[in-house]
Amino acid sequence: MSAGNVDERGDEQEQVSPKTLRRLERASGELANASIEAIQQRLPWFQRLPADQRASVLLVTQTGVSNFVSWLQDPTEAIRLTAEAFRAAPKDLSRWVSLRQTVDMVRAAIDVFEQRLPSLAEDEPERILLTESILRYTREIAFAAATSYAAAAEARGAWDARLEALVVDGIVRGDAEESLLSRAAALGWEPGSEATVLIGNAPSDDPPTIVYQVRSRAARAGRPVLLGVQGSRLVVVLGEPSDDRAGHRAAASIAEAFGEGPVVVGPTVSSLAEARHSANDAMQAQRAVVAWPSAPRPVPAEDLLPERALAGDPEAERQLVEGIVMPLSDAGTALMDTLDTYLEVGGVLETCAKQLFVHPNTVRYRLRRIADITGRTASNPRDALVLRVALAVGRLAKSRGLW
User: Fold this and answer.
1) What is the DSSP annotation of 116-149?
2) What tens digit of pLDDT does each residue of 300-316 get?
3) What is the distance between the alpha carbons of residues 296 and 262, in angstroms, rounded to a whole number?
4) Which residues contact 112 (CB under 8 A, 6 or more apart)?
5) Summary mean pLDDT of the chain
6) Domain membership flag for residue 107
7) How far apart are CA 346 and CA 356, in angstroms?
8) 95 and 65 in one domain?
9) Half-sphere exposure of 388 (CA within 13 A, CB side)
10) What is the CATH number of the domain that holds 260?
11) Is it true that the peptide bond before 314 is cis, omega within 30 degrees of 0?
């Protein structure tokens, strides 16, 4: 039902008289001030706003009140007039006044209007008409507010998505730390938070669906994430693992949001500034994981050191030499000789002991020492592969004078 036109029963309804409209125009400033006073009394958070922000809210309120008179004269202008109130506000209004707070302000203004407007009417029919008009106009204001906030949220979401993609791309490419950290801070990422990079296939061609799946799983795991879809590849930066077990559970949960195929997990680094190292290891591991068809999902990049070394990854070669070969070499030639012989005879302990001219218990003792030093058990097939490749890489590096 529109003021001054036809009601729901189809009966003609009188318009607000020109005399009443003039009263409303003269009273608009007083109504706006009364609305602001009611907002200040009922909403404590409003008093805590800086002066410039309170002034912006006052501008919106005054515009809404003055437009009410125009709306009474021509209800067909409802959408334009109500939206105009919010277009007059600063673009960042939605950042410091939430939609819930805006609704509370509208309610406070409605109470003021309901109390003061009826007294401006000429007679009882006009009082009824004004009361109904208030309800319809404030309904339009509420819809305009919701539309304004929805548009702001969409624009902010689109901007955040582009910024997030830039951050993830920068991590993968190894961009300068300062620009990366400033962008991540704008997204709410704590600069000192630990970070772990996961890389795998994207589950679909629909980025919003991918974002929802990853974020919902991250939320259940209680972990912040940054993600980027790069063609068919999905890159996720997972934050704040409280411990290794919790971090592994979170990575396993996030891995379920990836598409078919392997998902590799880079090492956890101390901050986002170091995330490029995790991303580099994960990238190299993703290229090499095809050489291990039975790799678990997700698979840590460090578990793919042999395949990465065979694929020519210098970082994997360095880790094998520094983590396995050099510690064994420092422990003495007996351990190196025992490991080399044990692997050459196919892991047969007695045969290894005969070739070394030692007792089998001596071989057992040395193998335990090797496991303590390297974290790898030579009798385990996978660990044996890692140790064998490490020895080969170590010899090649030594022949080139690299250690």
Assistant:
1) HGGGGSSSHHHHHHHHHHHHHHHHHHHHHHHHHH
2) 999 999 999 999 999 99
3) 8
4) 31, 34, 35, 38
5) 82
6) yes
7) 15
8) yes
9) 17
10) 3.30.70.2730
11) no
**Can you give the pTM of this predicted structure?**
0.62
- 250 with 360, same domain? no
Tell me if 165 is assigned to some domain. Answer: no
112-167 per-position pLDDT tens digit:
888 887 788 888 888 888 888 877 777 777 777 776 666 666 555 565 677 888 88
CB-CB contact of 163 with 228 (8 Å): no
pLDDT at site 157: 57
Please check whether residues 206 and 238 belong to one and the same domain: yes
CB-based contact 285:247 (threshold 8 Å): no
DSSP letters for 314-334? HHHHHHHIIIIIHHHHHT-HH
Domain range enclosing 322: 314-399
Please choose, from the candidates 247, 333, 336, the residue with its C-alpha nearest in 3D space to the C-alpha of residue 298. Answer: 247
Count of domains in the chain? 3
Tokens linked to 134: 């208030």
- Provide the sign of the torsion angle of the four alpha carbons 321, 325, 330, 333, taken in this order: negative
Q: Which two tokens stand for residue 71?
A: 């709306």
Q: Detail the DSSP E strand segments found in 40-82.
A: none
- 24 and 137: one domain? yes
- CB count within 10 Å of CB 5 equals 11
Residue 2 lies in a domain: no
Helix (H) or strand (E) holding 244: helix 244-255
